[in-house]
Amino acid sequence: MEEKVSIITPCYNAEEFISQTIESVLAQTYQNWEMLIVDDNSLDNSISILENYVSKDTRIKLFKCKENQGAAHTRNIALKKVTGKYVAFLDSDDLWKPTKLEKQIDFMKEKDAKLSFTSYECMQENGELLQQTRHVSGRVSYQDLLHKNSMGCLTVMFDANYFSDFQMPLIRKRQDYALWLKLLKNTDYAYALEESLAIYRLRENSISSKKIELIKWNWKLFREIEKFSIIKSFYFLSFNIIKKVLNK
User: For domain 5-209, which CATH number applies: 3.90.1150.190, 3.40.50.300, 3.90.550.10, 1.10.60.30?
Assistant: First the structure.
């Protein structure tokens, strides 16, 4: 029998894209999943769209925040409700390829991996695919990941039965990076599946597109979550910036 996957999807004002995201889950060749969507008090038509999907498929579950709390809070709400052996992440504007779950679970079983991630492609905000793939290979340790976050959130999957704590640290941004580091303190490696199995939407006004903001939140991660010294934090921040500039 197929083991269940719990899919974590935060949603905020995503009426333009959320249907495409859900449809990419419905199209999965691996069908034993639950999609835990947490709406962060959207002001658009997201709730109506989500409720329509919930009424049609019991695997899709909707939770509503009464006030906007940010991605870390909304993801943690969903993470507290997982019932699957595996946990995967998919934001409300990104897409999975149809074989994503099937191939990644097979890969994790083959490697006996507790944490994994894959390559992924990029598309413009309007959905047009770019000739831009973020390639990954091999495996990464905690120390490797400190130098560069190579794990795209939309590609990560972990074994929920193995880890005792997978709540995200409550920082406004880079909480996914913080979680990967947290998990890697409890398993030796995260294994990379080289095949591209997801598509990341580049948003013009997204926080992730604001490089200065990312530097600030990476600094906060190293200083306040990892509790590194100023010198050690600057060391790893410098590596992150250099590798981002060089795109390596």
Answer: 3.90.550.10
